[in-house]
Amino acid sequence: MPRNHKPAIATPNPLHKVESRLPDFLVTVVIPTLAADSRLLECVQSLSRQTGPDLEVLIVDNSGQGLVRRNGTAPGARVIENTRNAGFGTAINQGLRASTSPYVATLNDDAVAHPGWLAALVSALDARPDAGMCASQVRLFGEPRLDSAGMLVARDGSSKQRGHGRLPEDFPELEEVLMASGSSALYRRSMLEDIGGFDDQFFLYCEDTDLGLRARWAGWKCLYVPQAVVEHHYSHSAGRASPVKAYYVERNRLFVLVKNFPGRMLLAAPFVALVRYLWHAWYIFKGQGSAARFRAEGNAGPKMLWYVVRAHAALLGNLVRLWRQRRQIRAHARITSAVFRHLLRSHAISARRMAAL
Hints:
43% helix; alpha/beta; two-stranded antiparallel sheet; 18% strand; 10-stranded mixed beta sheet
């Protein structure tokens, strides 16, 4: 990026940049955890086998019970203990404030990184100064199928993993994608400071979508790096189709929508959402998709409607803040609305496909 690259957010930086000094490590890997169980230990051990850059591991213990310390599941890592679950985005921001490295990786506590994971990501960003983030090849643990190869966005603000359930061979090339899944990503610190880091208000889910779209408004690109392989136990913390996930995914896609979507797309989004809801109903009847899994886990249909109502009520309660953030993002954008719309269309997922997965 050019040397006169100005911050995309005019408000004080929530990351509270540390004083300028030479970084101790090239990469800080930040891992939020709730369970601090054997999967976290497996994750940390996979980082000790990395063949690439000098790195530090920073665990943010969101259990509120000091479980990382008590269970001894993060050998060699620095640990930040929270008195309660502060959420994913807040945990990553804590890791940013506590480190100085020029690159910051995010990794779920139920992910296992292959030895060349970080080296491939750093190499990709080193070669592309216009890119601020990289997406990994995230595989479903123990399976020859993908969890994600970057992220896609529907026209109602919903987001989904690109390539979910497909073979890694279907996405063999290093290429530009819309944004990265926060389950396993590398971010340039200068980009995170430029756009203000993760939004603490998201708590769970879609915070990586919001951050990725804000980065795109600010002119940064995202690369998919197929050589950076991670295996992921999908939705280990909150379940594949839990009530917690149902509410926050719906609420936060509304937050993403209001903050980031251009006006024309914002007006059309409720109609797209209605189509998606209808497809959910169809797939419940067919016994397929996330809504059918939610119902199969003992959650009746009216509960889904209740979470939609709650999500829209939360949107109304946060609308002033979200609209203020929207105006800040747009006031300091480095691309036009037309370019942003083209990006969304180029990396889109249909309402039907969203419901089917």
